[in-house]
Amino acid sequence: TLCPAFLPGEPNPALLATPFENITSQPEDDNLTNIQEYDVVIIGGGTAGCVLASRLSENPNLQVLLIEAGKSDLAILNSRIPACHSRLIASAVDYNLKTVPETNMHNREIRWPQGKILGGCSSINALVYHRGAAADYDEWAEKYGAHGWAWKDLEPYFRKAENFTPSSNWPIDKKGHGRDGPWQISYPSYTSSILPPFISGCNSIGIPIVPDINHGQTGMIGVTRVQTFIDSDGRRSSAATAYLTEDVCRRKNLKISVGMTVTRIITHTAADGKPVARGVELASGPHVPIRYRVKATRDIIVACGAVHTPQLLKLSGIGSESELTRHDIKVVKDLPGVGANLQDHLFIPLTVNSIKGTGVGYTRKPRVPLKWFIRWLLHGSGMLGSNLIQVAAWLRSYDDPEMANKIEDLTSSPYEPDIEIITVVSSARNIGQTRATNHLTDYWSLLQILLRPSSIGSIAVADNNPFTPPVICANYFNTEHDPFKKSCDIVKSSGAFVSWELPKRADELSDDEILEYLKDSANTCYHPCGTAKIGAEDDGGVVDTSLSVYGVPHLRVCDASVMPRIISGHTCAPIIAIAEKLADMLKGEYGTTDKRN
Ligand SMILES: Cc1cc2nc3c(=O)[nH]c(=O)nc-3n(C[C@H](O)[C@H](O)[C@H](O)COP(=O)(O)OP(=O)(O)OC[C@H]3O[C@@H](n4cnc5c(N)ncnc54)[C@H](O)[C@@H]3O)c2cc1C
């Protein structure tokens, strides 16, 4: 763990791609003759990209290249230690992006972490394993035209990905889970002192205890212990560690390029005058004069995540004509849906002081005590082997008659939630910014996550330079939801509550004061999606149901961008299932068609 003998990925691009000097990166200069070629080129070795590379290269006749801008997650200790996930935010493996000043949030620029590392966000995220409500996927198919992506279509792929290890102290019916997949799912052995009072607080106000929220049951409502992607050695099971094992990386037909950014997708004009995706161009950094190119004889799959996928498509001439022209990018395909339909979850922090012995402040010591580290290193156990998000409750605010009159029901079915409440072990206002100020205090933080926002934002390009960060406008908060009071009820009923810390007088605030507090303190819950959605082209769709980009044959997208509507939960597991399904679809397709030339 400390000094891994094996690190996936080839850092020298000259061994995998053909170098070009002094090219302009303009479509006129799109020479692809006599260059290194592969059957499939996957751009972005993140959550979806690792799954695709691993599954597609199971066919030894298929030459696969995976290109990742970051380096291996095995070399980043904080990525391996589950409890250290928040230390990865604003670190060298984060793109360190932020939104534009959000007008409905007191003009705050919200920090948006995105993993620049093999495994992508699955290597830096909070390790919560959650599938979302079955009705969310049925809604994709029925309401948004994503036929073939309903719950019944995706459920087998959730199982295929998973190797679930049950826990003796939280028994569930294992039938709903997979046992043979590469992704390690478990309950961490360590449980914090927050668990019993949170569950009893929920129970006292009528929230049922549900053994397993990931069962695909109708009505994903209740409080439960959180399942995580942590393996039996207490290490993070990212998409990279799960899918790009040493055996997989030794396959002769799989090449993995690390530390290289794809700067554009090269399209050629076919005999019918239409564009066809043929190759990609990559570079190690903004000031390096050498670019590299590879050709794809079958497909190019963009898996750069919901922020960078639309950016790359636009830099390659695929996007709204007016935006591309404004930035001097030659239009390949006018596709206004690219970068539109951005959706995200917001969380609202609530921090309370709790009775002595029930708080979690001790977990936030600025320096991890050596004995904790040794315990984790040798046995994978103790506090460091846990993601420290231990319990969560999913609720419907509409069932409260007072709320039902105030807000529109945006859930995917009358039985599914619009709110999730999780516990975290920090002063929630500080997440991603500074360490908790007083690590000795007994406190809890609860995050209320708004699961069904109607706010729609966008990803735009700032200019035509692939190394300029994209312009993120989340456009938060054009809906009123009020999960806040429910959290106050939970903590007051928990038997461990002492006083309000943030905000003070939390349960006495008027609606207007709560709204002001939300604008001041709400934060991204790190689930951006929808920016290259499945759907009809005239309805803003970017890809069809085979995840092929409209009007550009042999170009596909597979990542959080393709979700037509944000789900009522965490996004990592659904993306892994989507990638598993696309890999299966492509294996079937490639098995029966002739190689493209
Ligand atoms: C801090 C944080 C906490 C989260 N917590 C959870 C959680 O607990 N549970 C959960 O389910 N979800 C969580 N999420 C969300 C979840 O992790 C993401 O939705 C999901 O992993 C995104 O997968 P993806 O494949 O779409 O993109 P990513 O995993 O981000 O992969 C994109 C990859 O593409 C690479 N890339 C981008 N542009 C280029 C380019 N031009 N050339 C080459 N490579 C490129 C990136 O470096 C990256 O590796 C969290 C996210 C964050 C950021």
UniProtKB/TrEMBL annotation:
Cofactor(s) required for function per UniProt: FAD
Keyword Cytoplasm carried by entry: no
One GO MF term: flavin adenine dinucleotide binding
Ranges for domain Glucose-methanol-choline oxidoreductase N-terminal: 305-319
Transmembrane parts of this sequence: none
Active-site residues from the entry: 527, 570
Keywords carried by this UniProt record: FAD, Flavoprotein, Signal
Gene3D superfamilies per UniProt: FAD/NAD(P)-binding domain (3.50.50.60), Glucose Oxidase, domain 3 (3.30.560.10)
Protein name, UniProt field: GMC oxidoreductase
Natural source organism: Piloderma croceum (strain F 1598)
